[in-house]
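Q: Convert this sequence to structure tokens.
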Amino acid sequence: MRNAVEWLNSNQYRSFPIQEDCGHQASSLGTLLVGVLLPNYVLVDANFTIAGDLGVRIYLSQLVYTGDLLSLVFAASDGTIFTTLAVPSVSGSTSPTPYFVTGLGPWTDCRGFVVIGDLSRLPQDLPQGIYSFTVDQTMLEARCTRPAIRGVQSLSVTNQGTQSLPLRGDINLIAGANVQFRYDAYNNAIWIDVVPNAGYQEECACDQVGIQNNVVKTINGIAIEDVIIDGDGECVQVVTTGNTITISDLCSKPCCGCPELDFLNQTIDVINSSLQRLEQYTQQLNERITAFTTNYILTVGI
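A:
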């Protein structure tokens, strides 16, 4: 009888699901760590369902190996964090284990799974630490990202820069005071009509609008003719153009840019994931100590 090697076990000897032409080379703050490579057996399979642009690809952007905990951060090809994964026990992961993951941030509608292989050799092959990877080093194969085949997955409402949580399920569109909806059966469409003056027939409190020069009468209780907006001559600059007043801060400048903030946000996500796992370990240890103490007292008869 011939011994068969299961597919996931076979993947620990090859690059899949990472592209074959990728180098698996780790980097730290943009500098390659010579000789430090991601072992093939860490990732043995991955699959994500992604809504939106069909050209999106996923890659492993960061790996944190501390103690018996392994955390992975996956990012989209545009650099945004896609999802994170925490392996609870490196020493206990001795066979391929699937983990269900959900998208983060702009990818909250995405779902998928990651399969971690036999990590029993990881302490010998990879020193503990935080490792970063670039797209050309850990890009996943194209088959690992599948387009979502369903239609509209959610709707969000944006009002003055504030966006609501995604709305799912049966969603009702309710006409406002001067808006009405019409269903067009022929075109299978919904028309949105603006009804002039509907619901807006209150009389204006301003006298003779359009004739009066100054519609604004007061600012913070000060009569408009007595208001003067002036800068401090050093950091605050006031510029008027037509009926526009522009107030500029000449002194305050950000101390860092988007790349630094993105790196900090990614690191915080990884640390939060590690702290949650550590908290679970602490709870388990406390329960075992309590059980041991109880059994010991019952045994010795104290």
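Residues 55 and 76 are 10 Å apart (CA to CA).
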